[in-house]
Amino acid sequence: MAPVTTTQRTVLAGARVVLPSGVVESGRVTVDGSRITAGDPAEPVTHDLAGRGYTVVPGFVDLHNHGGGGASFTSGTAEDVLTAVRTHRAHGTTTVVASTVTENLDALARQAALLSELVEQGDLAGIHYEGPFISPCRKGAHDETLLRDPDPATVRKLVEAGRGAARMVTLATELPGGIESVRLLADLGVIAAIGHTDAGYAQTREAIDAGATVATHLFNAMPPLLHREPGPIAALLEDERITVELINDGTHLHPSVLELAFGSAGAARVALITDAMDAAGFGDGLYDLGPLKVEVLQGVARLVEGNSIAGSTLTLDTAFKRAVTVDGIALTDVVQAISANPARLLGRSDRIGSLEPGKDADLVVLDAAYDLVGVMRRGEWVVEPPAAPSGADAATAGTGASGPASVRSGERA
């Protein structure tokens, strides 16, 4: 990885650029300080990306992430948290929400205070509590002994521990106090997410009507979709008020299920997430996930006791590439799901989520095979793309031999 380089005025030109209005071939992105600005076509180009099949997309926004680089958001020190942030940033995630796992309330409150300081510093975009207000029937990789019903007073206490940084709470809304807690969160301006739930269809509809707006990793840790018992999945997919999280690592969801979600909800209601744990960007081995032990083998994280899938080792650049090249999702739809939609949910569409003048200069450069070759965050290169080839190398650049054909707006790769 190239060292971080601060730039004052940067002009990228010659790559395909994905904008809210569609795909621009051989486009330009001009950065002044930390913001994207309207550029002058006559201005000198600082990064010539032409002829190599490159694509420039907005920086990725991850709503649901537990850590990476060997470090955890739930139990790590401030430096541990920053290690995880930097790991995901190098993989294109320029905005990340820190997700916690089930712990005792005092431990969660202490960690929330630490995380809130990093939110204030701008390193994190908020806190997401995944647990302890979840169903023991669908607990996944959460310690059942620490689970509790979502009593509104306790939910409020945990939100307040975040000192204004809490952005989302995952709830099994069928539990006692669940609906009241959804209403409370909506009143507080915090996202109520339905997840790790054993609710039926009607119960889920009630939670949506009460103000829930997100489905935590749809399909995972909830009853399956059945023809006479549609359960929460049907209710969450059909309602336009719900954005559905999807973990696109090839382990959590079959490609046909991902396509079903995009087709049913539409790209405007999908948020691609990692649900990453410590091992993301770090490697196989034994890890702690809250109070539980996890073994990561060949990139798949499972509890040592019980063998449940325990989050993922996914990074969003991998999720992006897989969505386009394996799942056949249109490039513009993937950009919407991985950047624009989560930015909207966070209430930050005025600053992040798309490449438009006035917004933060958060962007990712992908090569012809959709592998990451550059990351800029707020005008600073985290990963600087390679210089344009010269001489004989330039003559063979952009032949398409290294990756798939170009994807235009509305086409599928």
Can you describe this structure?
- The protein is α/β, with parallel strands linked by helices.
- It folds into two domains: 5-58 and 353-396, Urease, subunit C, domain 1 (Roll); 60-345, Alpha-Beta Barrel (TIM Barrel), CATH 3.20.20.140.
- Helices cover 26% and strands 25% of the residues.
- The protein has ten helices and 22 strands.
- It has helices at 78-89, 105-120, 152-161, 178-188, 201-210, 231-238, 255-265, 316-325, 331-345, 392-396, and strands at residues 5-6, 9-19, 22-32, 35-37, 47-48, 55-58, 60-65, 67-68, 71-72, 93-100, 127-130, 166-171, 191-194, 214-215, 243-247, 270-273, 285-289, 292-297, 300-303, 363-366, 372-377, 380-383.
- Strands 1, 2, 3, 4, 5, 6, 20, 21 and 22 form a nine-stranded mixed beta sheet that branches.
- Strand 17 (285-289) and strand 18 (292-297) form a beta hairpin.
- Helix 3 (152-161) runs parallel beside helix 4 and helix 8 packs antiparallel against helix 9.
- The chain is globular, with a radius of gyration of 21 Å.
- The two termini are 28 Å apart.
Tally of structural domains: 2
CATH topology of the largest domain: TIM Barrel
Task: Specify the CATH architecture of the largest domain.
Answer: Alpha-Beta Barrel
N- to C-terminal distance: 28 Å
- CATH homologous superfamily identity of the largest domain: Metal-dependent hydrolases
Name the CATH class of the largest domain: Alpha Beta
Radius of gyration, in angstroms, nearest whole number: 21 Å
